[in-house]
Design a protein that fits this description.
The structure is a single chain. With 376 residues, the chain is α/β, with parallel strands linked by helices. It has 2 domains: 184 residues, 3-Layer(aba) Sandwich (Rossmann fold), CATH 3.40.50.2000; 165 residues, Rossmann fold. Helices cover 42% and strands 15% of the residues. It has a 7-stranded parallel β-sheet with strand order 3-2-1-4-5-6-7, sandwiched between helices. Strands 10-9-8-11-12-13 form a 6-stranded parallel β-sheet, sandwiched between helices. β9, α9 and β10 form a beta-alpha-beta unit. It is globular and about 65 Å long.
Length: 376
């Protein structure tokens, strides 16, 4: 009996693995590969076994810039590859993509990267941006292929010489399971019961502050409109909204905090419009899910968001970091005729079916992996 080829897939959280890469992991297992999932331990780690993979905990300081901690992370990856001897490494998020890839190259493991979004290191220019670009260039130099989730990031990396143009291609985000996220057009035709919903990790760069300020503006003349927030309060992230801030907003009555949920579908189904005022994205999963469920969207006109939202077709795009413009777009959405909002939602569903089916992403990964020279 032939030994199964082994694939290591690494991300910055087990939560991320379980929620965003479950379909890919199941497909790789079904295709006959042994899959080892690698991430820091969290409450979702025990659930990874449900996907048919084996889990290995690997601590990493996701947001830190301490050179010593990053060096330790590199050696952790190096030890992992020496022990596991995989044929392929699939890297996601910045530190696995950099330090995991470097370790994989040294141990002869074929690497396929996924650049899902560039985060704060690319939003703000400075020494950290220059360092991250250099590390990416070195780490990606030996990779077999690099997937990008939007054309802007792909063009940036190729244009700056961070990756060779013959190694790259674009995939539609993490894809969306169209059977799980079904058409749920709004049943509320009356604006007095209208509800906006923000689904995101609650970080400054997601535009949470702008969302709250815009809610204040809209509610001055529309006090019955609901502004809901669903997402994780990450106390360890320096850009995170604090629990005290969230409590103050809720006490003020400007927003309703829905906490965290493993299943966002009931919340999306109940919303009339989904909002994401992010500063920059890869391709935001929350917007893919909202569009798949035929919800009109208000989002910022930035990298990633505009890959999902075509302005005035399936949603409205607003200026980045501009609460007044965001409020204006939300007011416009609020006052649109019911039939026009639903038409936007249906256009979003159609876009997901045409461009963002998860099966497309999975097929591209399996094709690339099967095409590697070591595969029999």
């Amino acid at each position: 009996m032939l030994k199964k080829k082994k694939i290591v897939i690494a991300l910055n959280t087990a939560w991320n693995l379980f929620n965003f890469r479950a379909g890919l992991i199941r497909a790789l297992v079904a295709a006959g590969y042994e899959v080892v999932a690698v991430a820091p331990n969290d409450s979702y780690a025990p659930r990874l076994a449900e996907l048919g993979c084996r889990y290995i905990a690997l601590p990493m300081d996701n947001k830190g810039t301490n050179p010593l901690m990053d060096t330790i992370l590199f050696f952790r990856f190096l030890r992992l590859f020496w022990q596991e001897r995989p044929e392929v490494f699939l890297g996601y998020t910045i530190k696995p993509n950099i330090y995991g890839s470097l370790a994989a190259h040294l141990t002869g493991v074929a690497v396929i990267n996924n650049i899902a979004g560039l985060g704060t290191a690319f939003i703000r220019d400075g020494w950290l941006t220059r360092l991250v670009r250099l590390l990416y260039k070195v780490a990606l130099s030996g990779s077999r292929h690099v997937f990008f989730q939007n054309n802007d990031d792909l063009a940036l990396f190729v244009g700056r010489g961070l990756v060779a143009p013959d190694k790259v291609s674009r995939i539609p985000g993490s894809g969306i399971d169209l059977a799980a996220f079904r058409n749920q057009v709004s049943k509320q035709a009356q604006s007095q019961s209208f509800s906006f919903l923000l689904v995101a990790r609650l970080l400054r760069d997601k535009g949470v502050g702008e969302y709250v300020e815009a809610a204040r503006i809209v509610r001055r003349d529309n006090p019955a409109v609901k502004f809901q927030i669903l997402g994780f309060l990450d106390a360890q992230n320096p850009t995170a909204v604090t629990k005290a801030e969230m409590s103050a907003w809720v006490e003020e009555g400007v927003v309703e905090y829905l906490g965290v949920s493993d299943d966002v579908r009931p919340f999306l189904a109940a919303a009339d419009c989904v909002v994401l005022p992010s500063y920059r994205e890869g391709v935001p999963r929350s917007l893919l899910e909202a569009a798949a469920m035929a919800k009109p969207i208000v989002a910022t006109d930035v990298v990633g968001c505009r890959d999902v939202v075509t302005d005035r077709v399936n949603g409205l795009l607003c200026k980045v970091a501009d609460a007044k413009d965001l409020a204006g777009k939300m007011l416009e959405m609020l006052h649109l005729p019911y039939c026009e909002r639903n038409q936007m939602g249906l256009a979003g569903r159609a876009k997901m079916e045409e461009e963002f089916d998860e099966a497309v992403v999975i097929n591209q990964y399996i094709t690339r992996i099967n095409g590697l020279s070591f595969v029999n």
